[in-house]
C-alpha cells in the first residue's frame, strides 16, 4: 500500500515559453500587428511576438485535436453501425475577471478561422446568460454578479447542449458591459459553427451532484491564470482607463459616478468592487476550477504569458 504522504503525479506537463514556442512547427503567422491591436482588450499590451510564441503552437494543438476527433467519431460509427455526424468542437476559456480572457478568445477565434479545416468559429461569452439587473436585485444578488448563482444556469446548459445536438441556429440574450445589464429586446444569433469558443469566468464550474454543467460539453479547455495581486492591479488600472473613456458615454452605468468621483475616490471604488466581488469569486469559485483545464496559460506581471501547462493524462 502507498504511504499517504506519497505525492500524486501531476497530470500536467509544464513548458517555459521558450520550449512551447518550438512546438509551433511550421504553423504560418496569419495575423499582423494591426489585426492584433484590433483584437486585444483595453490595456492588454499583447504583441505579435506573443502570438507567434504562444498562440500559434496552441492553434496547432487545437487543430490536431479537432482533426483527431473524427477518429473517435469513426469508432462510434463503427460501433453503432450508423454514421455519426460531426458536432462543433467546443473550447472553454476560463479565468478571473480582468485576466484577459476576451483577448485570448478573440485571438483564437481569428487564428483558428484561418485554418482550412474549420473556417466557421463562433465566440460566445457567458455574460449573455447573466440574469438582468432587475432579477439580480430581486434575488439580492447585485453585488454577486459573476458568482455562479447570478447566471441562468438552465439557459447556459440548454444553449450548449443544443449546439452539440446540432441545432442550426440559436438566439441568445446580449449583455452590455457599458450598460452593465442584459439589453432589452436585443438578441445574438449563433449559427452552429465548426468550432465554438465559450468564454466566461465560471465555465469550468462543477455541477451540483447529479446534474450536468457546460464543461461536460467541452472538447478542450483553457484557464488563463495570473497571480491575484497582478490581476487586482490590472482590474484597477482598467477601471481608471474605462473612466477616462467609456464611462464618459451617458449610457454607461458608471457615468454619473465617474463624473462625481475624484481620482482617489475612483481608485478606492474600483478596489472595493475588486475586493468584495471579483477577488472573492476568484478565490471561492474560479481558482478551484483551474485543475480541471486541459491547458493553463500563466501570465506574468506585464500580462505576457510566461509558462504553459498542458494535461497529458
Ligand atoms: N465596466 C465596463 N465598461 C466597459 N467595458 C468593460 C467594463 N468592464 C469590462 N469591460 C470590458 O469587457 C471585456 C471583458 O472583461 P472581463 O469580463 O473582465 O474579462 P477579461 O478581462 O478576462 O477579458 C474586456 O474587454 C473589458 O475591457
Ligand atoms: C460580467 C462579468 C461578471 C464577467 O462575465 P463572464 O462573461 O465572464 O461570464 C464581469 O465583467 C463583471 O461585471 N463583474 C461584476 C463586478 C464588476 O463590476 O467588476
Automatic annotation (TrEMBL):
Gene3D superfamilies: P-loop containing nucleotide triphosphate hydrolases
Top-rank lineage group of the source organism: Bacteria
EC annotation from Swiss-Prot or TrEMBL: 2.7.1.33
UniProt keyword terms in alphabetical order: ATP-binding, Coenzyme A biosynthesis, Cytoplasm, Kinase, Nucleotide-binding, Transferase
Location relative to the cell: Cytoplasm
GO molecular function: ATP binding; pantothenate kinase activity
Residue sites binding ATP per the record: 95-102
Cell membrane keyword on record: no
Taxonomic source organism: Actinocorallia herbida
Phosphoribulokinase/uridine kinase domain boundaries: 90-230
Gene from which the chain derives: coaA
Matching CDD domains: PanK (cd02025)
Name of the protein this chain belongs to: Pantothenate kinase
Amino acid at each position: 500500500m502507498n504511504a499517504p504522504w506519497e505525492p500524486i503525479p501531476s497530470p500536467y506537463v509544464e513548458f517555459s515559453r521558450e520550449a512551447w514556442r518550438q512546438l509551433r512547427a511550421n504553423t504560418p503567422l496569419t495575423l499582423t500587428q494591426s489585426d492584433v491591436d484590433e483584437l486585444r482588450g483595453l490595456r492588454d499590451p499583447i504583441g505579435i511576438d506573443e502570438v507567434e510564441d504562444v498562440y500559434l503552437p496552441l492553434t496547432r494543438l487545437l487543430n490536431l485535436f479537432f482533426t483527431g476527433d473524427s477518429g473517435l467519431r469513426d469508432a462510434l460509427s463503427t460501433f453503432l453501425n450508423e454514421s455519426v455526424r460531426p458536432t462543433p468542437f467546443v473550447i472553454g476559456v476560463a479565468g478571473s475577471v480582468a485576466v484577459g480572457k476576451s483577448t485570448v478568445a478573440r485571438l483564437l477565434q481569428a487564428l483558428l478561422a484561418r485554418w482550412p479545416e474549420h473556417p466557421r468559429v463562433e465566440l460566445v461569452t457567458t455574460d449573455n446568460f447573466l440574469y438582468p439587473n432587475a432579477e439580480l436585485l430581486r434575488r439580492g444578488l447585485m453585488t454577486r454578479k459573476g458568482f455562479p448563482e447570478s447566471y441562468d444556469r438552465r439557459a447556459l446548459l440548454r444553449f450548449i447542449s443544443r449546439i452539440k445536438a446540432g441545432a442550426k441556429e440559436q438566439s441568445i440574450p446580449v449583455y452590455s458591459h457599458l450598460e452593465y445589464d442584459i439589453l432589452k429586446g436585443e438578441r445574438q444569433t449563433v449559427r452552429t459553427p465548426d468550432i465554438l469558443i465559450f468564454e466566461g469566468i465560471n465555465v469550468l464550474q462543477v455541477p451540483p451532484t447529479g446534474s450536468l454543467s457546460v464543461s461536460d460539453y467541452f472538447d478542450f479547455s483553457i484557464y488563463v491564470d495570473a497571480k491575484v495581486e497582478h490581476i487586482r492591479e490590472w482590474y484597477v488600472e482598467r477601471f481608471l482607463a474605462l473612466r477616462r473613456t467609456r464611462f464618459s458615454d451617458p449610457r454607461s452605468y458608471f457615468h454619473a459616478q465617474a463624473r462625481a468621483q475624484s481620482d482617489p475616490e475612483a481608485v478606492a471604488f474600483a478596489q472595493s468592487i475588486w475586493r468584495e466581488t471579483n477577488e472573492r469569486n476568484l478565490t471561492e469559485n474560479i481558482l478551484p476550477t483551474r485543475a480541471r483545464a486541459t491547458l493553463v496559460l500563466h501570465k506574468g506581471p506585464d500580462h505576457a504569458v510566461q509558462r504553459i501547462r498542458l494535461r497529458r493524462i
